[in-house]
Amino acid sequence: MRDLALLPKAHLHLHFTGSMRPGTLAELAAAHRVRLPSALLDDDPLHVPADERGWFRFQRLYDAARACVRGEADMRRIVAEAVADDAAEGSGRLEMQVDPTSYAPFVGGITPALEIVLDAAREAGARHGVSVGVVVAASRMRHPLEARTLARLAARYAGDGQGEVVGFGLSNDERRGETAAFAPAFAIARRAGLASVPHGGELLGPGHVEDVLGHLHPDRLGHGVRAGEDPRVLERVVASGVALEVCPASNVSLGVYDDARHVPLRALVAAGATVALGADDPLLFRSRLLAQYETARTVHGFSDDELAGLARASIRASRASADVRARLLAGVDAWLATPERVPTA
Ligand SMILES: [Zn+2]
């Protein structure tokens, strides 16, 4: 068994607010005199049913955490710590999602909000030796015209260099909003060369995956785990080369599967899908990137060869520059070439 923290990998599904360390949230809440719900302060991962009530509870906690982020210093700290934590877990490439709308009121608009995140990403990336890209994500809960505004903003900062925008996403409750209404925003992003990385197929089944495939032409799907419930849909995902950002801890916390054993990780990989493991919202799920790889090893029985395969898939599905991808892929080969550690009793 080789050390998974040393396996180079790319982290393609991590939300800005959801990346926060619990201790940081507590400090920000104290500094801004915000009273946090106790569920955000205890050590237990969130566990809700996969229905509207469960989502509402998740959203309420998420909003409470977001309300503690009140300006540039807080924003910079969150990015810096997310990059540091990723680096410690062997991530050489992080693509972090942010909806700048939420922080705009504190810093004078969505443009400065995004620029602060990009600048902090450049700084932290350089300090920790992590290549960092940003995904601008619109929300299904808001008007599709707002998504277009965000897509235009994202397009202005497009690039594969350190601290540039690499993709455009769509998040929040899959049951809300009409997927087709967001197509024009994704078209703007695509024309600017951005990857299309909407959420889909976590809370809703294969029908939703088809809806997203048809209207938003994703390069990657946030989650997409439930595509496997219809072999025809999974085949379409595989044939079109759409990568799945699979976040096992998130699936269990949000009640999509009652146990990590039931996350169809093996079935998806066996069907030929490109799977990139991600942490989604470690603040609420109390589980970071490395833990997802550990789940693949301990719960799903992935061998070191197979774990290296997952890492390679994440790197190839990333929007890192060709030289960064080549360097990380070489690192995966080097990891596999190291002798296995014999477990000590
Ligand atoms: Zn997500």
UniProtKB/TrEMBL annotation:
InterPro entries: A/AMP_deam_AS, A_deaminase_dom, Ado/ade_deaminase, Metal_Hydrolase. One of its GO terms (biological process) is purine ribonucleoside monophosphate biosynthetic process. SUPFAM superfamilies: Metallo-dependent hydrolases (SSF51556). It comes from the Bacteria. Gene3D superfamilies: Metal-dependent hydrolases. Residues 8-335 form the Adenosine deaminase domain. GO terms for molecular function: deaminase activity; hydrolase activity, acting on carbon-nitrogen (but not peptide) bonds, in cyclic amidines; metal ion binding. Its cofactor is Zn(2+). Keywords: Hydrolase, Metal-binding, Zinc. Belongs to the metallo-dependent hydrolases superfamily. Adenosine and AMP deaminases family. This is Adenosine deaminase.
